[in-house]
Amino acid sequence: ERPTISVNPAHVIAPINDNTYGGFTEHMGRCIYGGIYDPGNPLSDERGFRRDVIEAMKELRVPVVRYPGGNFVATYHWVDGIGPREQRPRRRELAWIGVETNEFGTDEFLQWCEEVGTEPYICLNFGTGTLDEALGWVEYCNATSDTDYANLRRRNGRDKPYNVKYWALGNEMYGAWQVGEMTKEDYAKKAYQWAKALKLLDPSIILILCGQDGFSSWDAHVIKECIRHDVHGVNPEKGCHSLIDMHSIHLYTASSDHLCNVTAPLAAERGIEIAAGLIDLARIENKVPPSVPRQKICFDEWNVWDMFRAPGEQGAEERYTLSDALAVAVWLNVFVRQARYIGMANIAQSVNVISPLMTNPGGIVKQTTWWPLLLFSRYMRGDALAVHLRCAEYEGPTKPEWIRGTVATPWLDVSVSLKDGIVALAVVNTHPDEDLAVDVQGAKGPVEVFTVTGDRLDAVNTEEAQQVGVKESNWDGQGCYVFPKHTFTLLRWPAS
Ligand code: AHR
């Protein structure tokens, strides 16, 4: 049978949240220092912000950026990073075993976000931090009252509030690598109490619960305990219906075997589906009224990360291949297909650390993974559409094995969107050596075509040579479209 992809613009699944294309900047390796902040470099502005990085973030249209960790946040005291620079303490840092100078802190980050035109998303310290500190941080960022932390912000030169909407209740608190590692029972109790106090202070904030990967007993427990019919702390008149607004999950995938590399992100799809089911179950068991908006998934760390190629303690500067770029395109297809559950997703990370964007003292390098991210952020917005796919399948193992095992996986990985009357079809041909001719039902010429590929699956981009980029062409929409081997293709045509 001939392979087919059928698309119908009337078959809308759900809106794609713009925050699907979010970023993440952690005090880790060269993400902040030497990445977004590089004082003295001729490429930086008077505040030390790298202008070329800001331009790149604007080009990517990054809607939201998570900060300051990650693991870093578990021993971070935000007060160290505000006020006159010369008075800020240098501290030992226990996540990546370094020294934090605190030259770059809350005001710098929030002003950088304003410059980029992106929303900040702050993660609270659930390790050595206290609830008082967390309340102080929210007050410092958001309050207009004549109170201590709001006045401290004013004294530091910032009169109007920053209005930081997104706040996370800790990071990976289940992990043995965390200062402050907790049992799921202890975490659920603490997160719920913090959420109550934080929402009493500022009912306009969106709170994100710390989950694991979506398919763990940690997720099941914390969702069941924290997604409840809340009575105290909520304020429906101010739009605050529940203490917890989103559940966060993390996953990194990688394999030196191409087929395992490109199929591994499908484990994240299971994680999203399972976590969404756990949320539904908690809402039913805890009798959460339907008037409370359904809590979404915040996939606030995702990417291809091979810990051997790019160890964390060394700044995780991974050099990405074409195979990795195709894996990133599959990751993004997952988020579009799961649009009904995704409230936010953040590639980890935005600069230098496991990132599509690398800096050096004289400029930036766009890695292979930059190109699918750019095309998705530019074109895969609006509504996600249902798609029917029929094609031959890969029947080998997928990783991690305990999630999907050996199941048949179509050689083509596909998602579709509709925005402003234009259909966009994203297709990854994961096959290492076969082109696939496909009957694209519903496509109408003229079709704009964007192709990301390279000569070899291990092609990389460096300062010297960009082996992987985007090629633009056109197709008249007649007959079959041939998706070349190991290629990511995005087709766009008018819906009517
Ligand atoms: O993104 C790198 C690290 O990976 C983060 O600090 C942590 O949350 C995760 O384990």
Core attributes:
about 500 residues; alpha/beta; Immunoglobulin-like; TIM Barrel; 8-stranded parallel sheet; about 25% strand; globular; binds alpha-L-arabinofuranose
Structure write-up:
The structure is a single chain. This protein is α/β, with parallel strands linked by helices and about 500 residues long. It has 2 domains: about 110 residues, Immunoglobulin-like; about 375 residues, Glycosidases (TIM Barrel, Alpha-Beta Barrel). It is about 25% helix and about 25% strand. It comes from Echria macrotheca. It catalyses: Hydrolysis of terminal non-reducing alpha-L-arabinofuranoside residues in alpha-L-arabinosides.
Strand content: 25-35%
CATH class of the largest domain: Alpha Beta
Largest sheet, order of strands side by side?
A: 21-20-23-18-17-14-1-19-22
CATH topology of the largest domain: TIM Barrel
Helix count equals 10
The name of the CATH architecture of the largest domain is: Alpha-Beta Barrel
Count of spatially separate domains: 2
